[in-house]
Amino acid sequence: MVRGDMKYKIATIGSHSALQILKGAKDEGFETIAICIKGKEKIYESFKVADEIISISGYSYFKDIQNKLLNRNAIIIPHASFIAYIGHEGVEKLKVPYYGNKKILKWESDRSLERRWLKQANLKLPKIFSNPQDIDRPVIVKFHGADGGAGYFLAKNHKDFKKKIKLHHKKRYVIQEYILGVHMYAHYFYSPITHELEIMGFDKRYESNVDSLGRISARDQMALPKEQVDPSYLIVGNMPIVVRESYLPKYMEMGQSVIEVSKKIASPGLFGPFCLETIITPEGEIICFEISARIVAGTNPYVNGSPYTWLKYNEPMSTGRRIARDIKQAIQQGKLKDVLG
Ligand code: ATP
Predict the structure, then answer these.
(1) Ligand 1 pocket, mutate which of 277, 286, 288 (most atoms under 8 A from CB)
(2) Distance, CA of 68 to CA of 41 (rounded, Å)
C-alpha cells in the first residue's frame, strides 16, 4: 500500500492467525512479511501469504530485527501468540508501528482490571470466590497468564479445592463460578476510522480433554485413572457457529458497551478486532467470562468471510482482511496514527 513515497507492509509472527492476517493484507494490496522461528517457515511459503520471511532463532530475537522492519515501513499486527511471546512489556517498548491500542493490554491481561472493565460495561460475569471457604457451587480454578486453559481444574466444594490446589504450588489463581451452558465466542471489529462496531462471527473451541470426556459413558469414566478424567482445556482448534438470530441485538449491545467503557479507561479505547468469550445458559442468559482485545484464532475458520461479513460486505471479508482495510482507509485519509498504538 503506497501513500506519497511511503510504501507500507504488513508484518506478523508466523503463528496463531498469521495465515489469515497475511492473506487479508495481500487481498487489500499490501506486501507482507512473516517473522518465523527457524524451521517453521514452510507453512507460510506453502500458502504463499508472505512476500518475505524473516527467520529468527527464538522470540527473544524479535527486538534485533526491529530496524529491518522499520526500514521496510512494516506495520505489526498483534495476535495472542505475538503478545505471549513478546510479552506486554516488550510490546510497550516496540519501535515498529503497531496496529491497536497498547494501553488496553494491561486491562485484558490483569484479571481484576478486566473484571472492572466488563462490570462497568454491565456484562453478566461469573461469580468470583475471593475466599475458598465460601465456595458453595461448582467452580473453575484458573491460573494467571493466558496459557489456553491448560492446567485449570474444577472443584465441587472447599474440601475438593484444598485437595486439588496442593498440586499447583505458589501459582496465582482465581476461583470462578463454573457456568453450565454452551460456549459462544463472539468476534467483533470496531473501526476508529468508520466509528462502527461490526459483528464478524462466532465460534466454539475444541479443547482437550474436556471435549472428549462425553464420548465415554460415566461407567467407563469411573474405570479410568483419575488424571485422565480430570478435565483440561488445551485448545486444539475452533469450529464455526451461527448464533440464534434473536441473540444478535444483545451481542451487539454488549460489544458496544465494552467499546464505550474502553474509551474512558484507556483512551482512545479499544479498536480493531476483539472477542467476548461467553456462555449461554439454559435460561438464555449470556455470561461473559473473558475478553480478548485482539484477533482470536476463532476467526480462522472464516478466511473467506463468515455469514455475517458476507451479509455486510458482499465480498470475502476475513478479520485479517478487515484489519488491512482499516489500515488502508487510514492511510488513504491521512489518519494512519489513529490506528497505531
Ligand atoms: P485464552 O486466553 O486463550 O482465552 P485462558 O487461559 O484465559 O485462555 P479461559 O478462556 O479463561 O482460559 O478458559 C479456558 C476454558 O475454560 C474455556 O474455553 C472454557 O472451556 C472453560 N471456562 C473458563 N471459564 C469458565 C466458566 N466460568 N465456566 C465454565 N467454563 C469455563
Answers:
(1) 277
(2) 18
| In the chain, domain spans | 9-98, 108-124+180-209+234-314, 132-177
Q: Return the CATH class of domain 9-98.
A: alpha beta
Most distant CA pair in the chain: distance in Å?
70
- pLDDT tens, position by position, 315-339: 999 999 999 999 999 999 999 999 9
Task: Report which protein residue has its CA nearest ligand 1's atom 27.
Answer: 178
Phi, psi torsion values for 319, nearest 5 degrees:
-65, -35
Closest residue by Cα to atom 2, ligand 1, is 146
Side-chain-side CA neighbours of 234 within 13 Å: the count stands at 7
N-terminal to C-terminal alpha carbon distance within the chain? 20
Q: Please choose, from the candidates 25, 77, 7, 98, the residue with its C-alpha nearest in 3D space to the C-alpha of residue 324.
A: 25
Phi-psi region of 86 (alpha: psi -120 to 50; beta: other; left: phi over 0): alpha
CATH superfamily of 132-177: ATP-grasp fold, A domain (3.30.1490.20)
- DSSP, collapsed to helix, strand or coil, labels residue 92 as helix
C-beta separation of 30 from 324 below 8 A: yes
pLDDT value at 226 more than 90: no
Query: Does residue 178 have its Cβ closer than 6 Å to ligand 1?
Result: yes
| Nearest atom in ligand 1 to 145's CA | 6
Task: Say if strands 233-241 and 272-280 run parallel, antiparallel, or are unpaired.
Answer: unpaired
Class of domain 108-124+180-209+234-314: alpha beta
Q: Is 16 in the pocket of ligand 1 (CB under 6 A)?
A: no
Of ligand 1's listed atoms, the one at least distance from the Cα of 147 is 6
CA distance 272 to 189: 5
User: pLDDT by residue (tens digit) across 74-91?
Assistant: 999 999 998 888 888 889
Quote the pTM value.
0.94
